[in-house]
Amino acid sequence: MKGERMFLLCLTIFSITLISISALAGDVENLVLNHDFEDGINPWTLWVEDKATAAAEMVIDKKEHIKGKKSMQINIQQAGKNNKRIELHQRHFNLKKGQKLTYAFWAKAEDARPAKMICNHRAAPWTAYGSKNIMIFEDWEEFYTDVKMTADDNIVGIYVELRDTLKGKVWFDNFRLFEGDYVPDEELGQTFPVDYRGKLSVTWGQIKSAK
């Protein structure tokens, strides 16, 4: 009996937490335009640093997606020689000093690869307001980082930095930039990887759909 009561108590607390998170997520205003690529490529842009030797393109993929019916695919077709950057961008956001935000997106890759997510001032001195080094694996996973505005800034940008020495395809979906601490998307939930490599990761959305 004692074990059953403890289980029911934990289940109740867990259920209340999920309901609270869902309510918070419903109030989140996403500042990112065309965040799930349902409207095509614009206003997203791709920047290739090593234009002389690297070859990369971005296309809308209707077969791979985590939300909606489309995702963004970046295909690095030809590796560069100097480990230079390939970046997926959106700008400009008008943010105010003292704001605390969350920058988040979902991604997967043909082969596991390192990347970096950054929110910064899109001109010299390129002030970073939030950044994180990440590893993108073969299964969809959400990544997020805090953004803390240290100045008024009307040319803030978000982007993902890849390296051109690793060829292959990378998919992105459901970008978010919103004020406040991280909350999962109410439709998708949050990723809970089973192992470090993320190969068996699942989401609350998948768990709920399986019930």
Structure overview:
The chain is of the alpha+beta class and 211 residues long. It has a single domain, classed as Sandwich (Jelly Rolls), CATH 2.60.120. The protein has two helices and twelve strands. The strands form three sheets. Strands 1-4-9-6-7 form a five-stranded antiparallel beta sheet, with no helix packed on it. The longest helix is centred in the first third of the chain and has 25 residues, at 2-26. Residues 7-25 and 193-211 have low confidence and may be disordered.
Taken in chain order, the helices and strands follow as HEEEEEEEEEEEEH
> What assembly state would you assign to the polypeptide chains in this entry?
single chain
CATH topology tier name: Jelly Rolls
Helix content: 10-25%
* Radius of gyration based on Cα positions: 19 Å
Average per-residue pLDDT, rounded, comes to 84
Strand arrangement within the widest β-sheet reads: 1-4-9-6-7
Query: Which geometry do the CA atoms define?
Result: globular
Quantity of strands, as a count: 12
- Termini Cα gap: 26 Å
Structural domain tally = 1
Structural class: alpha+beta
Q: Give the percentage of residues in beta strands.
A: 35-45%
The first-level CATH class name: Mainly Beta
Write the CATH homologous superfamily: Galactose-binding domain-like
Query: Main sheet, how many strands, which sense, barrel?
Result: 5 strands, antiparallel
CATH architecture: Sandwich
Q: List the total number of helices.
A: 2
Poorly predicted runs: 7-25, 193-211
